[in-house]
Amino acid sequence: MLPTSSPPPGHSSKQRRHSRYSLLWLYFRRLFKPTQMDFQYTLWTMLQLCISPKTAYRHTSYHKQTKNHWARDDPAFVVICCTLVALAALAYCLAFSHSVGRSLLTIVSAVAVDFLAVGAAIATAGWALSNRFLRRQNQHSHAVEQSVEWMYAFDVHCNAFFPMFLLLYVLQLVLCPVLLMHTFVATVLSAVLYAVGSAFYVYITFLGYSALPFLERTEVFLYPIAGIVVALPLALLLGINPTKLVLKWYFDYQP
């Protein structure tokens, strides 16, 4: 039976704002209480993002059903990522930096800028794009209007970042003796590594937004792969080794 009255104007928007504030409060409260973070589930999610990303996002729908929001209310994923990025940056500094001050600046920059600030900018762009252009129009006047939460958009960035981190931070460091050689093979390996890492980021971002049932045309998030496909042969033709460029940017490294 249909309701005979509708909620007062602005009622649903007030509810959404209250829900967002409650989620933020819970999120930051847990940030300072490590015992309330579920690190075991977070590590399981990270594993799934590497071997079966769709499985990881399938659990997102379960989260919505049980807690009535799409975003994580547990900061464990961000905490682990920040720690891993800091440790990876420290490893690069030990290998390529000759200054303690420069090393500390690099570590802070890797976490605060490369992961958090750039990630927040990408999340904001995805959040604005999806809410402005990709939401399905409600077919029923009594249907509940849904929108992408900014915190969920940032979760999508974190999810996409982790496999890319393993490729472009960890694996690259292991392969540096080969990637820094003055050979065409080293250039090919470096360019392919960055292409695969970037494509993985784009694909998992696409999965994150396509997991939301109220969005449509989410294939737009796959469009950057076209740029990657074009950039890869150009890099090879021009002899551009991304690993050398990155190390030169951060450490003025001259192989």
From TrEMBL:
Annotated InterPro entries: UNC-50
Predominant cellular place of this UniProt entry's protein: membrane
Membrane-spanning ranges: 76-97, 104-129, 160-180, 192-215, 221-240
Membrane-protein topology: Multi-pass membrane protein
Locations listed in the record: Membrane
UniProt superkingdom: Eukaryota
Protein keywords: Membrane, Transmembrane, Transmembrane helix
Keyword set includes Electron transport: no
GO annotations of cellular component type: Golgi membrane
Family per record: Belongs to the unc-50 family.
Protein's recorded name: UNC-50 family protein
Organism encoding this protein: Chlorella variabilis
